Structures are given as structure tokens and as C-alpha cells.
Amino acid sequence: MRIEGYGRVDRDVSLDFSFDGRRFAGHPGDTLASALMAEGVVLTGRSFKYHRPRGVLTDTSAEPNALVTVGRGAGRDPNTRATVQELYNGLEARSQNRWPTLSLDLWAVNDLAAPFLGAGFYYKTFMWPRAFWEKLYEPIIRRAAGLGALSGEADGERYEKAYAFCDLLVIGAGPAGLMAARVAAEAGAQVILCTEEPRFGGRLLAEAEEVDGQPGHLWVAGVLARLRGMDNVRLMPRTTVTGAYDGGTYGALERVSHHVADPQGAPRECFWRIVAQRAVLAAGALERPVAFGDNDRPGVMLASALRGYLHRYGAAPGRQVAVFTNNDDGHRTARDLARAGLNVVALVDSRHDAESLAGEVPFFPGWQVCGTQGRRRLSGITLRAPDGRRDVLQVEALGVSGGYNPSLHLTCHMGARPVWRDDIAAFVPPAAHVPGLTVAGSANGAFTTYGCLTEGAEAGAEAVRVLGFRAEVADNIPQANNTPNRLRRLWAVPGRGRAWLDFQNDVTVKDVRQAAAENYASVEHMKRYTTQGMATDQGKSSNVSALAILADATGRDIPETGTTTFRPPYSPIAIAAMGAGGQGAGFAPERFTTSHEASLRRAAPMVEAGLWYRPSYFPVKGERHWRPACDREVRMVRDRVGVCDVSTLGKIDLQGRDVGRFLDCVYANTFSTLKPGRTRYGLMLREDGFVMDDGTTARLAELHWLMTTTTAAAGQVMRHLDWVKQAYAQGWDVRFISVTEQWAQFAVAGPQARDLLNDVLDAPIDNLGFPYMANGAVSIGGTRARLFRISFSGEHAYEVAVPSRYGAALWDLLVARAEALGGGPYGMEALNVLRIEKGHITHAEIHGRTTAHDIGMGRMIAAKDCIGRTMAGRPGLVNDREELVGLRPLAGGTLTAGAHLFAPEADPVRENDHGYTTSACFSPTLGEERALGFLLNGHRRHGETVRLVDHLRGIDTLCEVTAPCAFDPTGGRLRD
Amino acid sequence: MRLTCPLCGARDRREFTYQGDAIMLTRPSNDDPTAFSDWLHLRDNPAGRTRDLWYHEAGCCAWLVVERDTVTHAVHSVALVEGEDAD
Ligand SMILES: [Zn+2]
Known about the structure:
Low-confidence stretches of chain A: none
Strand order of the largest sheet of chain B: 3-4-5-6
CATH architecture of chain B: 2-Layer Sandwich
CATH architecture of the largest domain in chain A: 3-Layer(bba) Sandwich
CATH topology of the largest domain in chain A: FAD/NAD(P)-binding domain
Radius of gyration of chain A: 38 Å
Number of domains of chain B: 1
Structural class of chain B: mainly beta
Number of helices of chain B: 1
Shape of chain A: elongated
Order of helices and strands of chain B: EEEHEEE
Oligomer: heterodimer
Largest interface: A-B, 27 and 32 residues
Largest sheet of chain A: 7 strands, mixed
CATH class of the largest domain in chain A: Alpha Beta
Number of strands of chain A: 50
Helix content of chain A: 10-25%
Radius of gyration of chain B: 14 Å
CATH topology of chain B: Folate-binding fold
Bound molecules: zinc ion
Number of domains of chain A: 5
């Protein structure tokens, strides 16, 4: 129902919405919870385990009960707290965890079985037999217990992530947060003010209370107007700071468009990383209930929430209401509800010596509420007098207050534990917690408005003073209520009936006591045994009460019993928000070569090589499969000429007088003796003696060198060179930089490679002037280029490099000339076959566990100090190694990479393993399958027979062991 | 977590690559395999102050020695491996 004259919703405008298909109306400014309440809907959901009817408990984000699914289709949003969801026109919400309907929920039979479903039920019942767990228990439990469900479809909703930096981050915008932000902003600091609510003002918007001689919400409006006028202030409504991390970093979730019908392209949520020099936590405090029999009946709410719905929304769950409290704050609720014209039938205060602060309201000091009546909503409460006498009152709503817990969660995100303050019966932040963060107001245990204003101002001023700003506080504090809230602790009312603590996970006082009785006496054990505090609300309304009851049951005091650990996030965050931008093409960057477009025009399928995209093969008419294309391309290179884009290899430009010396250090073999105009193969080791990478390095001029790395290890090699230079070669005259992106480089390979090049070069080359492993500057159509006579294919071959802007043009030119000679482009499949035929290694072979010795290059390690030399000499790295060999089938059969090698007569089991294969292909040149692999002592087993077994693919082939190089072993084709 | 690179200023830890103990800076001068093996493989695991190596890979590519506390997460100093006075 709506209360006339109350609330700050816009009653001139009506918004239509639906809940479980029924149509309702509310107003701008409503939440889904307040609009349902105004429409008389009290039952909003079913509980997790027992399917008990539940209604709204709070008016905050800590709501454990009123979880609904908003929207439909792929982007539907389960487990939305109705207390947070702002109303918009056309909003569709559905209740959860009920079947078939909310009012008739057949799973409610669980509630009848409750005596068997208590604490530890899962542990005790479903341990055995194992098969029953997977096939029977778990599916049933998953069906019966649970929260909302995702659609199972890809979520097309947009999410964003963003970064912000500031001098001061203020978390919470009640009286403390507003003062902190104002003082800091007036001092000139860059301030970010976040509130998880849609409006700034915090509790001042939910109370009838004066600040500075005017209604609280008007004082808020004044401060906000001032903050809005300052360009050093950023106001972030609907933004929950969810975690505190090292270095002044805070995670925050902004709900950007959950509150509008049409987001108009705006993201649904944005996950912020805010870096703040200092931060003030002014997140307020959360009221906690008192547990008593059947205290979960819809209509039983927190007293502050009842008051909040009245002042904020002009909404109440019924006309007949009562309040049950152990502190003075509950009296305010009774007073305000009575003033609003509701029939407050009882103010029940468990303190026998309490005096009523609620005027004419019937007052029951020393009494307790010990039970409730009603089916799907509250219809009455049972009171118990100090002498045991009972009375039953008809009510539609009951406000309960057990005191307040400061919202100190963020202070514990980096390992600190809160400390117990007996005078307010609550945990407060410890002295030292998150560096750079101070706590002010109710979050710090200051429960009066004046206390909040004062602490906020001081915290804001202190924070920015540390940063060098001049901040004034002294006579700036507005007048406000400063009456402390008196309280006498009461956690649970003794008596019959189930007294609920954790509403979201259905944990009762009895469950906690039972855990203690079974010696789950530590908080962490109790929590896991009962599941208290482990639901999506993380026990915000139940942790302290459960702890107090555990303390009582185990005969300890509360500080001795401890507290559970608070971890980020403070409230649930969609994974999609944290991973924003990482879906689809945003998952990883894509690197394209300059020939990419031309390759696509030829319908070349692309294969990923790290972030690069490289063509697998270039199909011609009639080729519907990769193999014919690959075979053709291999023959083309062996017989005529082929062109291949090799720009993805890492290229590092090195200059300086000490480059030779530096390369001697990072390569296992010697480079200082290399002459300008010459190129050399180099093997790079890790410090532990294993192979890191290989490639060629060309000496372009006396002081100018160019290193190439494999595509896969380009980043690792650059990092390694930086390390060796900065750590071990300080003061050497060496400078280097990656030029991978700056140069397009193409291999031209085959017997007609030189013919093709002389077709395009401005000045022709010959074998004498440009022998194998030569390099030099050339020009093509007047453009300066670099030419290297190096070969990965084993053919007479060159690599020609031009600045990237000429790459596409040169590719087209080379391919056209190659085709005129009967050749053409070749892709990764052919490149791979060509190198396997030659026994050349790639990272399939140098995979991090192979040594120079293993790949037959042990003798390359020069007698000089270089990275990896000492460790490569360890006996375990040279004796009884699995060594690189070639393999060919003895009498047909298939060879695969990843197969294992065994002696022919041995059982193919792990104990008899003699090695494995790393690469395999059909060699069109040799007319048979070929493989490379590592075989135990393989260097001296050429000619032997081994058995290749691929257990995964069911392949078993007898092979002859050969040298890795199966084609042109003397290398004559390279030099012609 | 944030580190203040001496060349680039305070940056998010995502810009850096972690390597390990700064003992890697003091490479044995001889080729005694035992000394090398110990240097390469034996590591303390202190609860408290450590000196370890970070690489500002998404920044200036400087290798850094970071002195920090594994218990409090405090970062005490960040210095260039190469020394600020290197040319
Ligand atoms: Zn840097």
C-alpha cells in the first residue's frame, strides 16, 4: 500500500511492470521491491533449500530473500535483488526456485522433511555409494535447491571495463561520505564519490531527520549541487566498490543501464579499476535481525527497512504493524510509522528497563516476539512477557532490529580481521587494514548522524592533507542528531519453532548449535558445515548473529570465537563485466602480414601462429583438400620456385661496437668472427642448458646486425636479450630494437629462385657475388631492400625484405613472376613438409626439454662463456638422452606426431618407452611418410628398427631409424 | 598491485612480467656446475622482504629489481637493473 504524503517517488507518472506475468504499476523512483510492496505483493520468492515462502527483508543490496529474474531471452538476469532493481516502464520480473508457481510450490515438501535436512545433511547422507551421488542425489538436489538459472544462450548484452584515477576515492554517499567528499573537493583534490544507490545521500534519504536545520534530503541536495559544480569531482551513482587491492587499487561495478527500458547502446554494466592515492570508506552499517520462531514469514522485515520504505517510497506492507527491537533505533521506526497513520499495535523491546521513544504506541518493555502466524504472509505474532505469559497480536508486518553491523568488509580484503566492540555489540575495522584507506561514520561504528558528519569531514581532510592539500574542517560540521543508540544484545529468542539466521541458505539457530555440538566449533568449520554465510549475500544479515550463537554454544566470548574472512567482491559481479571486451574478436589481438589480403583473395585457409595468421596452403582449381595442395606446393618448390611470407619471424636490429661480443654471450656458437655481408645460423640456450630458440643472424655492416627468431619465441628472445644486456653487459656498446613489424620478408625458394630474383632486382646477382649465407643491400624498382641467401626448405633460396609499406606490392610481384616460371606461393603445410624432409627443427622439436646435444648440435657450443654453456655440460644433459632422429616406415603404414617409440619386440607400455615423435608428414619428394622424433641414444641407432605406437589414434608402425635429414644430405642444392 | 617504474612512473602490474629472485643478477664467474646449479635452482621462500625481478614489458622494457614484502605486500623500492647512470 501507498502512504499519502510520504516517499519521494514521482506519483504523477505511472510505470507498468509485471511480476510472474501479472501486471502492476509503480512510479519513477521506485525499486521493484517498493513497487511490489505498494501493490500489496509480499511473497516474492522461495527459499533455497526448504522452499519456504519469503518476502523482502531489507531495503539494501544485502537483501537475501527477494531475488528475481529480470528480462527474458539470452540476456535475462537471474538473482537480481528486487531491493536494488530500479523500476522502469515494461520491466518484466519472475520469481525463482519454485515449481510450478510461486504460491503453489511442490518442492515445498522439502520443508516437511526439514528434520532430516539440517546441518551436515549432505555430508552425512550423500557420501556413499559414490555412483549414487552423481546419478541420483546431485541431479535431484540441483533441481530442488538453487537460485535463478541462466538462459544457457550466449549473452549478447554489452559490458564495459574502464579505469579511473583520483586523489581521493569516497565509498558511500551518506552523511559521512558527502562530508568527506566535500571537504576534500573544496581543498582542491581530485575526488571520486561512489554510491551503490541510484541517489546520493544514503540513509538521510530514508529518515525523518534534520541536518543543519533543514530536512536531511534537502541538505543532501545542497551538498550535491555544490559537488556537481566542481570540475575536480566525479560522481558515480549505481557504483558498488567491490574490492580493495594492493597499491590503492579498487574494483567497482557500475550498473549503467539496468534501470532503463532502452539502454540506447549503453552497456549493461561497467567494471571499473579505480586507482586512488587515498580512500575513505563511508559505506554505513547494515541492520541485523533477531532470530525467533518462524521469523522468515513474508512481512517480517528489518525495522530500518520498514522505515526506509515509508520515507523513500511511501510504501508499507500493511496497515497493522509491530516493531520488535533490542535498541533505541527500533523506536524510531514505531514512531515514524505511527506518525504516518499506520496502526502500530506494539513496540516490543526486549530490554525490561527500556523507555518508549515512540509516543502513544503500545509499549511492551521486557517482552519478546517468540513466534509468527500466517501462511504465505504474516498474519500475527506471538509475544511472550517476562513472566512467560503469551499474547497473540494480529499484524501484517513486523519490523525487527537487533542492532547494526558496520559495513567494514573492504577493510578486510587484504587480510585484516575486524575487532569486537562490546559497547555497540559489533565488529569495527581494526587499526591497520588497507594502506591508504580510512573509515568514517557508521562503517566505523559511529551510529549518529552528527558522528557520521564529523568523522567524514575529518577523514576527508586528513586524507588530502597527507597529499599536500590544505583542508579546513573546524567549524564546518552541520548541526545534527547526536543521541547515541542504546542497545542490549539479543541474538535469538529461546523457544520452539525454527529460528532463521541465514535466510538465503536456510540456516537456523539450531543448525549452528548442532554444528557446535558436533565439534565444528571454529567459525570456518561451522560456516562450511551449515553453509551459513556462503550464499550470494555472503551472510551480510546473519554472520555476526551466527558467530554470537556459536560463541554462546561453545562457552566462549565473541572475540575469542573469531570472525569469518571477508573477501572480494562485496556484492556479486557478473563475470561478463570483469571480462568485458574479451569475447569473440576481443579475446586476443590478431596480427596480419602484408600479404594477408592477397592470401585471402586466393582463398588460402588461415592458421594461427601465436597471434599471427598465416596461410596453410593456396588451393588451385580442383583441390578440395589440403593434401593435394600441399603436395603440389612442395613439388613446386623442389622443381621450380615458390614464394612464402616469412615476415612473422622475429627480427631484431642490433647496432654497436660490442654486438659480436654480445651475440657470443647469448648464442651457444660464435658470432664475433662473422664478416659483414655474411649470415650465420645460431642456437640460443637458456641458462639451464636447454635450447631456447634458433635462427639466423646477419651482419649487415661492421656495426649493424640483424637477428631473426622463430615466430613462436620472438617475445621471449627479446625479453632475454634485454635481460642479458641490462644485467650482464652493462656499459657495452650494444643497442637493439624489435623491427618485426617494420619489415616484410619473403622466402623465394627453388632451383629457379635466382632467375626469379634477377627478374625483379635492379641489378642482377650471381653465385659468386652472392653465395650461400651471403646478405646484402639490393634494390627493387628503386626501393631499397635486403637480400639474404638462407634456406629453411633445403633449396637454393633467398629471403628478401622490404619496409612493410612495400610488402603487399612485392608479394604480388614475386608471386606473379613465380607463376610465370611455373611456380607460385606456398603456405605453412608445404613449409612444414619441406623442413621435415630436411630434418630442420621448429618449436615442435625445441619444446623446452631438448638440449643442443639432443638435436645433434652439441659441438656447436663454443669454448667461450655463453648463457647455458655450464649447465649444458651436466651429465644428465648429455648421457642416455632421447636424441633427434628421422623415421621412415619399413613396410608402409602411417606415422604421426605424438606417437611413442618402442623396441620392436617390446610391449608398448610406459616402462618400455624409448622416445616419441614430434613431426610427421607425407613427403611427396621421397614418396613416403617421414617423421622426426626423439629416440633414446638415437644418434647411434640409425638403421635400427623401432616400433611407432600411437595409442590415441590406434596406430602401430614398424620404422627404420634414419638421420634427421632425408633429402640432399650434403646440401648441394643450397649452394648451386 | 602497482609498481613505480623509475623510467615510466606508477603503473598497473599488468604491464610487468614477473621473473623471480634477484639473485639471478649475480651470475657465477667460474664454470663450476655445482655453483651454477645452486645459483640457478636453490631459492629461499621468505615471509617478509624479498628482492625480485620484474620486466616492464608493456612499457620501457627495463628490467627492475623490486624490493617488497610478501606478508604486507608493501613495495619498498623499485630500481633499474642497469643502474640509473647507464648511458
Ligand atoms: Zn618502465
